């Protein structure tokens, strides 16, 4: 193929594209691509969407966007870039749904692979029932919401989720994928049986715990550095159809965290355990994630946390309305709640379908989109905190460094370390996320600069106090910082990079490695 034939054309093709009017005048600027035998196609002009992401803060223009229709489209593209050798300087970034925060799925002057065009129609996915090994094979560009809808047709569903399902399988598996089920099932990367991957050399490799295991474990949570996930085999369980969704409030952090840790330690517990912090806010429902409609909405909206910090424990119990007896479900819930120490007048219960529960953040998204509040800068800060340091972190950060939660939700929930090896050697770790939205061009407390400075204060305090946190979805600009992030695992990470993507072609947006020239 002549895609990147070694003539001078590629220099022209992959320098930043000229403005659209100039491109139109050019008779056939990309002739070299026309001869490539692709099932899908390249686009050179409509690349603007690939230079944005949910974070709305980083904008790197690619030279081209590949819309693959087959795995071989991706493999042959990566292989060409690899075989062109160091001189091309080209990079390739897989783009899922573009919900990264800081340019992680962008490729400055390189090629962005629009993974969503690889999706098979969900009905063509392979769904296997029966026995303990139920799974579904899905494309890396599939949205989790579509995986859910498809598997539910057979009464099955994946076990571990993210809070928001309009993310792709390949995108979340490159990071981890956590939500309120992770205390039991581990993150999404713990619930994958097999992957098909295109490495940085353009090879298509199937891998699992038993086959090419090193690649398998490199790619899961590997920030896209070792390969592009083209197919994933996801473990399934019998799906419930209904959910009792419960929120209770605490004013005392240690009671809140003791209860969370108690709940995640039980064999028979809730099916979902999360929580959030309310600082200087009115009402339990005043939160962009809220599609929560408790039976007593008036009471729920009356809580005034002026000057105070409240902690909301959010739990859910799944059940099957055809098989499970409602009274038994209620008794189980009562049994669990009776051991907790929340403010007794603050028990709010909502009843929703399983699909409605899992897709809850999408409801909020639609509302925010209507108000033009979705496509704003999102200076999020997502952390993992060792359980032993959580009290210290909470007392310094909630109410002191962070004096209100009006910029966006602050999630906090405990996870069992045994379910996830993420470099913090403690039994319990907390996930804490400050999910702020900034008001464009504001210079006040709701502006980007203020929120970024606040995030930095949280990090500075944590460093000074020896909290030993790790960032989730991190963004660093130097390799030194990345070495610090990976700690003792850096050497292994580097060795694997040299094995699977030796020219550092893949996922340049993380800025961990420079394309080898
Ligand atoms: P992208 O942002 O497009 O890509 C992410 C990274 O993965 C990039 O480096 C990209 O190059 C790489 N990549 C993409 N596809 C592939 C592939 N097929 N193979 C290899 N690499 C690939 N995360 C959680 O864990 N839990 C949550 O509850 C959660 N909630 C969220 C809610 C919202 C509203 C948003 C915006 C994000 C949330 N996230 C959550 C974070 C989310 O998991 C990451 O932002 C993820 O990167 C988004 O997935 P995406 O499909 O849009 O991937």
TrEMBL record:
Entry superkingdom: Eukaryota
Assigned EC number: 1.5.99.12
Catalytic activity, reaction form: N(6)-dimethylallyladenine + A + H2O = 3-methyl-2-butenal + adenine + AH2
InterPro entries assigned: Cytok_DH_C_sf (IPR016170), Cytokinin_DH_FAD/cytokin-bd (IPR015345), FAD-bd_PCMH (IPR016166), FAD-bd_PCMH-like_sf (IPR036318), FAD-bd_PCMH_sub1 (IPR016167), FAD-bd_PCMH_sub2 (IPR016169), FAD-linked_Oxase-like_C (IPR016164), FAD-linked_Oxidoreductases_BP (IPR050432)
Example GO BP: cytokinin metabolic process
RNA-binding is among the record's keywords: no
Keywords: FAD, Flavoprotein, Glycoprotein, Oxidoreductase, Signal
Entry cofactors: FAD
The FAD-binding PCMH-type domain, residue ranges: 58-239
GO function terms (MF aspect): cytokinin dehydrogenase activity; FAD binding
Pfam families registered for this protein in UniProt: Cytokin-bind, FAD_binding_4
Main EC class the enzyme belongs to: oxidoreductase
PROSITE patterns registered for this protein in UniProt: FAD_PCMH (PS51387), OX2_COVAL_FAD (PS00862)
Family as reported in the entry's similarity comment: Belongs to the oxygen-dependent FAD-linked oxidoreductase family.
Classification via PANTHER family: CYTOKININ DEHYDROGENASE, GULONOLACTONE OXIDASE
Name by which UniProt lists this protein: cytokinin dehydrogenase
The species this protein was found in: Linum tenue
């Amino acid at each position: 193929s002549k895609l990147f034939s070694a003539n001078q054309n590629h220099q022209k093709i992959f320098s930043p594209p000229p403005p659209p009017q100039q491109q139109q005048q050019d008779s056939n600027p990309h002739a070299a691509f026309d001869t490539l035998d692709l099932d899908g196609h390249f686009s050179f002009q409509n690349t603007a969407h690939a230079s944005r992401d949910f974070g709305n803060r980083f904008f790197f223009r690619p030279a081209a966007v590949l819309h693959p229709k087959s795995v071989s489209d991706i493999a042959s593209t990566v292989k060409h870039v690899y075989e062109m050798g160091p001189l091309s300087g080209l990079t390739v970034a897989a783009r899922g749904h573009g919900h990264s925060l800081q340019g992680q799925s962008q490729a400055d002057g390189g090629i962005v692979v629009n993974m969503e065009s690889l999706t098979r129609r969900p009905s063509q996915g392979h769904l296997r029932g029966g026995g303990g090994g139920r799974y579904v094979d899905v494309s890396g560009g599939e949205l989790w919401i579509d995986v859910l809808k498809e598997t539910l047709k057979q009464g099955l569903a994946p076990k571990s989720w993210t809070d928001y399902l309009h993310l792709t399988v390949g995108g979340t598996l490159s990071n981890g994928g956590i939500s309120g089920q992770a205390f039991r099932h581990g993150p999404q990367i713990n619930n994958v049986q097999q992957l098909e991957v295109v490495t940085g050399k353009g090879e298509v490799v199937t891998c699992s715990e038993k086959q090419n295991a090193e690649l398998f474990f490199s790619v899961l949570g590997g920030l896209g550095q070792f390969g592009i996930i083209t197919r994933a085999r996801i473990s399934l369980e019998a799906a419930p159809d209904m959910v009792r969704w419960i929120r209770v409030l605490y004013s005392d952090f240690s009671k809140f965290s003791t209860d969370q840790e108690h709940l995640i330690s039980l064999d028979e517990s809730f099916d979902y355990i999360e929580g959030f912090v309310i600082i200087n806010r009115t009402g339990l429902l005043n939160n962009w994630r809220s599609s929560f409609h408790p039976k007593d909405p008036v009471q729920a909206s009356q809580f005034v946390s002026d000057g105070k910090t409240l902690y909301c424990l959010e739990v859910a119990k799944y059940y099957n309305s055809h098989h499970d007896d409602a009274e038994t479900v209620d008794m189980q819930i009562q049994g669990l709640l009776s051991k907790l120490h929340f403010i007794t007048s603050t028990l709010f219960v909502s009843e929703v379908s399983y699909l409605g529960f899992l897709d809850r953040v999408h409801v909020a998204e639609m509302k925010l989109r209507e108000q033009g509040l979705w496509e704003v800068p999102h200076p999020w800060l997502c952390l993992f905190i060792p359980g032993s340091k959580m009290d210290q972190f909470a007392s310094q950060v909630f109410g002191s460094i962070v004096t209100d939660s009006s910029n966006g939700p602050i999630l906090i929930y405990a996870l069992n370390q045994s379910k996830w090896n993420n470099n913090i050697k403690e039994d319990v770790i907390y996930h804490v996320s400050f999910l702020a939205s900034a008001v464009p061009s504001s210079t006040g407390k709701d502006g980007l600069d203020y929120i970024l400075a606040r995030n930095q204060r949280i990090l500075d305090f944590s460093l000074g106090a020896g909290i030993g946190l790790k960032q989730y979805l991190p963004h660093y600009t130097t390799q030194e910082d990345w070495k610090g992030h990976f700690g003792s695992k850096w050497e292994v990470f580097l060795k694997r990079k040299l094995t699977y993507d030796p020219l550092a072609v893949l996922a340049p947006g993380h800025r961990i490695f420079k394309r080898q020239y």
